[in-house]
């Protein structure tokens, strides 16, 4: 399998720099692929959709990007078993494209990351996400420990998982909830959820386990320099807690 | 008092409506124009529709005379060729519109028929997981 990773850039994407740097720091062969060059995507073995505001969140967050030509290749690659990781706006795009939870046809969404609650305001807050499914449920999380606790930054106005009751039940029954919000000590309760997300959900995985959509940004807590409690005396770009998810992703790509 | 709906629409170029038009055309839906309105729910007091319009136009968080045009709707339902999209469980905030109205026109300038509106709604304008469409 092809081990090259494409970091997709839509008009309005703004997290491609740190995403690309982290992937390369972890030894991945990663490149940016812009929206004007969708024909290049087939040559890559895995895709990362970084955060931002693709197409200015017009209509809904992720709605326009889900119909972009880049996503034709991602949908095709997903069906072939390629690994796909979406962070924040990338996660919203994956849900709008129907790739996560992937229980209906492509581009027929059954869930969404939508306006925060109780107040529909933008939040920027340090959070922890906890692996809620078995590590082997997804190839992307396979190298994580059971119940792994990962620091990240939540930076979104539309990060609340919402779906109809039947689809929420489907997410639970199909073990689609990959990550939940947690306290720094690993406890999980409503107070740990910063945005009113249903099921306390921070991240969802598709049925086959090759597509993961995560709302908070672990890549923004991936080095000592941007860790909340910076370790004095260590190199600024020494790996920090958020890197472990990307490390697991890169390992999965290299194993595939 | 009577509940009336007020449609506020950009009179300057509307990038969001244009983006919707381009994507819908790419999806094979033959449209010539898309108009996007924010639909506010208001109470009509003494003075009728004209006073309601004046009152809404004084609300600077809703209406900017340099950018917007306003219509008090005759009936509290979508206009011909229009679909209203409502977010199902998003918390209401002051001065947020009740609906987003998408008014679709065919290439000959006539309002879109119901089948075209349904296609546009299903394929792009409404995410049924979180939104409800009213035609």
Notes on the structure:
The complex is a heterodimer of chains A (256) and B (135). Chain A has a single domain (4-255), classed as Class I glutamine amidotransferase (GATase) domain (Rossmann fold, 3-Layer(aba) Sandwich). In chain A, 20% of the residues lie in helices and 23% in strands. Chain A has helices spanning 16-25, 69-79, 89-96, 165-173, 243-255; strands spanning 4-9, 29-34, 46-49, 83-87, 112-114, 123-131, 149-156, 160-162, 177-182, 201-205, 211-214. In chain A, the strands form two sheets. Chain A has a nine-stranded mixed sheet, with helices on both faces. A two-stranded antiparallel ribbon of chain A has the order 5-8. In chain A, strand 10 (201-205) and strand 11 form a beta hairpin. Chain A is globular. Chain A starts with a strand and ends with a helix. The model of chain A has no long low-confidence stretch (mean pLDDT 95). By secondary structure, chain B is α+β, with helices and mostly antiparallel strands. Chain B has helices at 15-26, 48-57, 114-125, and strands at 2-10, 33-44, 68-72, 82-87, 99-105, 131-134. The mean pLDDT of chain B is 94.
Quick one: how many beta strands of chain B? 6
From the spread of the alpha carbons, the general shape of chain A counts as: globular
> What portion of the residues of chain B fall into strands of 2 or more residues?
25-35%
N-to-C span of chain A = 6 Å
Structural class of chain B: alpha+beta
Enumerate the strands of the largest sheet of chain A in spatial order, edge to edge or round the barrel.
2-1-3-4-11-10-9-6-7
What are the low-pLDDT stretches of chain A, counting only 5+ consecutive residues below 50?
A: none
State the major sheet of chain B: 6 strands, antiparallel
Can you tell me the overall shape of chain B? Answer: globular
Overall mean pLDDT score of chain A? 95
The share of residues in extended strands of chain A comes to 15-25%
The end-to-end span of chain B amounts to: 26 Å
Structural class of chain A: alpha/beta
């Amino acid at each position: 399998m092809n081990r090259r990773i494409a970091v997709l850039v839509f008009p309005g994407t703004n997290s491609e720099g740190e995403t690309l740097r982290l992937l390369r720091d972890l030894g991945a062969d990663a490149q940016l692929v812009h929206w004007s060059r969708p024909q290049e995507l087939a040559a890559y073995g895995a895709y990362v959709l970084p955060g931002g505001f693709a197409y200015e969140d017009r209509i809904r967050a992720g709605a326009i990007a889900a119909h972009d030509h880049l996503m034709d290749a991602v949908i095709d690659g997903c069906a072939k078993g390629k690994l796909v990781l979406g962070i924040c706006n990338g996660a919203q795009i994956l849900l709008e494209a129907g790739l996560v939870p992937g229980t209906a046809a492509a581009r027929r969404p059954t869930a969404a990351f939508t306006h925060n609650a109780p107040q529909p305001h933008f939040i920027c807050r340090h959070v922890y996400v906890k692996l809620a499914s078995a590590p082997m449920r997804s190839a992307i999380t396979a190298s994580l420990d059971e119940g792994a606790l990962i620091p990240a930054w939540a930076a979104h106005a539309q990060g609340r998982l919402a779906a109809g009751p039947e689809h929420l039940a489907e997410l639970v029954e199909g073990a689609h909830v990959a990550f939940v919000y947690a306290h720094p000590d690993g406890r999980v309760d409503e107070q740990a959820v910063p945005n009113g997300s249903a099921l306390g959900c921070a991240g969802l995985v598709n049925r086959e386990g090759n597509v993961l959509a995560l709302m908070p940004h672990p890549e923004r807590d991936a080095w000592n320099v941007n860790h909340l409690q910076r370790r004095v005396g260590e190199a600024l770009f020494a790996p920090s807690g958020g890197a472990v998810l990307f490390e697991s992703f890169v390992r999965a790509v290299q194993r595939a | 008092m009577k509940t009336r709906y007020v449609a506020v629409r950009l009179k300057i170029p509307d990038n969001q409506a244009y983006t919707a038009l381009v994507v819908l055309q790419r999806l094979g839906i033959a449209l010539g124009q898309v108009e996007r309105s924010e639909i506010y729910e208001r109470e009509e007091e003494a003075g009728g529709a004209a006073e309601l319009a004046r009152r809404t136009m004084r609300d600077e968080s809703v209406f900017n005379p340099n950018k917007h045009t306003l219509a008090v709707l005759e009936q509290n339902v979508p206009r011909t060729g229009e679909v209203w999209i409502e977010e199902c469980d998003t918390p209401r905030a002051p001065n947020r519109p009740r609906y987003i109205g998408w008014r679709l026109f065919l290439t000959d300038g006539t309002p879109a028929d119901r089948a075209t509106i349904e296609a546009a709604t299903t394929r792009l304008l409404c995410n049924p997981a979180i939104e409800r469409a009213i035609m």
